[in-house]
Amino acid sequence: MNCLETSFLIDLLKGEKSAIEKYIKIKDKSLSTTSITAFELLRASEKNKKAIGEMERLLQRLNVFGFNVGEAEEAAVVEKELMKEGKQINALDVLIAGIARKNGLILITNDKDFRKVRNLRAETY
Question: Contact 113/90 with Cβ under 8 angstroms?
């Protein structure tokens, strides 16, 4: 299952050509996102009521994976692996990576930090 990460969804809503082309390729597949991405999108759009409405409509069409104990355990493993390798990424991205790895999701992203995470299935656009 494809998991649409924050950078992809923002680029898609902005009408970025590469994001639109990627969406056309995957739109007929099962699409999801994470509760962490939902949080990032909604907090980013808090000052713009139109943007909030667009985000909410988009999120209603996606299967949203939550952050539960299993995902927390996997995120902790991700963080420990990164620390051991001397790498660092945003804490929210660690949580997203944990959700994606725990659930076997393919993360659709333009955020290069996810390349640092071992055994994370990710596609860029």
Answer: yes
